[in-house]
Amino acid sequence: MRSVDAHLAEILAAVRPLDPVVLGLDAALGAILAEDVEAPVALPPFDNSAMDGYAVRAADVAAASEDQPVVLPVTLDVAAGDGARRAVAAGHVTRIMTGAPVPEGADAVVPVEWTDGGVSEVAIRRPAPAGNAIRRSGEDVRPGDVVLSSGAVLGPAQLGIAAGVGRSAVRVRPRPRVLVLSTGAELAEPGTPLAHGQIWESNSFTLVAAVRQAGGEAVRRRAVGDDPAEFKDTLDALLGEADAVITSGGISMGAYEPVKEALAPLGTVRFEKVAMQPGMPQGFGLLGERQVPIFTLPGNPVSSYVSFVLFVKPALAVMRGLPAAPAPTVTATLTSAARSPAGKRSFLRGVLGTDGAVAPVHGQGSHQLAALASANALIVVPEDVTGLTEGEAVEVIPL
Ligand SMILES: Nc1nc2c(c(=O)[nH]1)N[C@H]1C(S)=C(S)[C@@H](COP(=O)(O)OP(=O)(O)OC[C@H]3O[C@@H](n4cnc5c(N)ncnc54)[C@H](O)[C@@H]3O)O[C@H]1N2
Ligand code: MOO
């Protein structure tokens, strides 16, 4: 049997980052930047007010106090967006709004709360030091600054700064488009009645959600039956739209294994046993001229999700332009004893608490969907360990 590490290494060596494309900011959430984004101008582009109030010369209001307010004429009114270049003379003040350009001559802003709010003249009850409530041009970004470097993950704030420096589109590695195809004649679509011998199809929903969480775009196709020709036709018809394919089911030792039967003859997809529990039967290969990676995951629901976490998610990260790395782990303390088969790396489902303790959930079978849903972590038990005792330190993969 192959080791988990060898299987992952083969996958990570085979997948490539997707070619960069230019995407509008609306479409770029989660994409990885493939260029440096530079600011063409300073941010803020001009000195502006941080508060609603009055732009003054600090010297003119230095003597202001609650008992003896300084009363000055209001000769200008500047709203945010005011495009005129204005100036204010000594002894005069400008009513100013947050974000409005500070007129030339003014060197401080007095918040409206320190005044009587006058419109033609204003009584100012507190002095404002020079620079008060003024946001200086360039104090966020200087012209030419690289505000985002190639390789940055575009989250909400990163899209914000891209827009903030005037960009409507960015060059990125796109989110991989992943085709999720489940197989099995026993699978009924959720929402339809269940005949004897059938179960509701669940893997594709888990895998589609997992792809999205991993920064990909998923296309889900209704389960295909146990006919290898039907499976191959469906795959061929949809491959052109996909950057990667995930299948579930149909790869083990049974009489009806459509995925294995359809793909094994191509010679480009390898099926093998990986020394892990759950998720022993695995397949991986590259399809067609575009060398589209295909992950043929086992059908048992826990097995397919664990396989996704261990193998597909790191591969999608590489396709997105992120560094190749196995699923990250944290160290936790086991709250009860656990067993594991010899010679296989186990991934027990567990609940990881904020206190750093992890408890294996009840129901460790690879078909036990509800137990999986109650877990938030995988407890990693090395190949050479068959028993863990309460209080032991273990490595855990948070889900
Ligand atoms: N003789 C052997 N039998 C099995 C072996 C073996 O080594 N020798 N391995 C077992 C292991 S381990 C696994 S895992 C499964 C993997 O089998 P397949 O990948 O071929 O999957 P199926 O047989 O199609 O399905 C397995 C199981 O999962 C259910 N399933 C499948 N697809 C879905 C879906 N989309 N949603 C919900 N549930 C699904 C299916 O009904 C089966 O119960 O093989 C073992 N057998
Ligand atoms: O390895 Mo299978 O994935 O146990 O259920």
TrEMBL record:
GO terms for cellular component: cytosol. It catalyses: adenylyl-molybdopterin + molybdate = Mo-molybdopterin + AMP + H(+). Keywords: Magnesium, Metal-binding, Molybdenum, Molybdenum cofactor biosynthesis, Transferase. SUPFAM superfamilies: MoeA C-terminal domain-like (SSF63867), MoeA N-terminal region -like (SSF63882), Molybdenum cofactor biosynthesis proteins (SSF53218). One of its GO terms (biological process) is Mo-molybdopterin cofactor biosynthetic process. Residues 179-318 form the MoaB/Mog domain. Its cofactor is Mg(2+). Pathway: Cofactor biosynthesis; molybdopterin biosynthesis. Its EC number is 2.10.1.1. GO terms for molecular function: metal ion binding; molybdopterin molybdotransferase activity. InterPro entries: MoaB/Mog-like_dom_sf, MoaB/Mog_dom, MoeA-like, MoeA_C_domain_IV, MoeA_C_domain_IV_sf, MoeA_linker/N, MoeA_linker/N_sf. Belongs to the MoeA family. Catalyzes the insertion of molybdate into adenylated molybdopterin with the concomitant release of AMP. This is Molybdopterin molybdenumtransferase.
